[in-house]
Design goal:
alpha+beta; 4-stranded mixed beta sheet; 4-stranded antiparallel beta sheet; 2 helices
């Protein structure tokens, strides 16, 4: 009798595990990111810095508006000074080769030790470290912050309420960003709000939500469609509204009158009187 040895071959097939798939996807993602950087790293970083500039300017505008509401001031009268975010031991920024200004305008810089401070000694001449709205711990400066790229601030005509200009210099001439309208090139008269003694206006970051104040016993008005229609907010009272500020999404508002500060957390539907800041003119 002969014995035959029979061999059984077991065939099996197994797919990729979830962990293996995640590892592969992670590697592909890293390779794609590296490829993009290698293809055009300069433009990538310029766009990133421009994005930072946009955020900084928005934050600065909101901080200045809230500062005005908090202190009951209109940021002062025009002083023909261009405040610059560049550090310089010379107050007139003479260490930098900046464009020549038309008289009577002059440059002003803060010292290298102080230019980022938010206590009034920095490149902006306002103390953001006190009051109800401590909006800035340090002053933002341009990501590059050199003679070609810097932030500037100038005071506007205080007779028109809060008026100022804060700007930056982008590194790319063309940016694929979304804007509302044409940034002031053309204007639409919004008669639905009526002809009133408007003293202040604030906007959300995308321009869809607006809040406006009327002086000499007027009301606050809000809009959620870029000013096409307006809602009179009588619950805030009839007051001499001096200033108003808005958060980037338009949900939080702060308004100052010849008296107290009022705040809203629901886009102006209801308001809270903030007596802790005192009654001021």
């Amino acid at each position: 009798m002969s014995l035959r040895r029979v061999k059984r071959h077991k065939s099996s097939f197994s797919g990729f595990t979830l962990i293996e798939l995640l590892v592969v996807m992670g590697i592909l993602g890293v390779l794609m990111a590296v490829t993009l950087l290698v293809i055009n790293p300069t433009e990538y970083f310029k766009r990133a810095r421009n994005s930072t500039r946009g955020t900084d300017i928005t934050n600065l505008k909101q901080a200045l508006q809230l500062y005005s509401v908090d202190t009951g001031t209109d940021l002062g009268t025009p002083d023909h000074i261009v405040y610059v975010s560049l550090p310089d031991a010379n107050a007139n920024c003479s260490s930098w080769s900046l464009p020549t200004l038309t008289a009577p305008f002059t440059y002003q810089c803060a010292t290298p030790a102080n230019y980022k401070k938010a206590d009034g000694t920095g490149w902006l001449p306002f103390n953001f470290s006190t009051g109800a709205y401590k909006t800035l711990a340090v002053l933002p400066v341009d990501p590059v912050n050199d003679a070609n790229n810097y932030y500037t601030f100038t005071k506007g005509d205080s007779s028109q309420g809060i008026s100022f200009s804060v700007s930056s210099i982008p590194e790319l001439a063309v940016e694929t960003t979304t804007t509302i309208g044409d940034v002031g090139a053309t204007w639409t008269e919004r008669t639905s709000a009526g002809s009133r003694n408007w003293t202040s206006l604030a906007s959300s970051a995308d321009g869809t939500k607006l809040a406006a104040g009327v002086g000499n016993g007027g009301y606050i008005y809000t809009s959620t469609d870029s000013g096409a229609t307006w809602t009179e907010r009588t619950n805030a009272g009839s007051r001499d509204w001096k200033a108003i500020a808005s958060s980037s999404d338009g949900s939080k508002l702060a308004a100052g009158s010849s008296g107290y500060i009022y705040t809203s957390t629901d886009s102006g539907a209801t308001w809270t009187e903030r007596t802790s800041a005192g009654s001021r003119g």
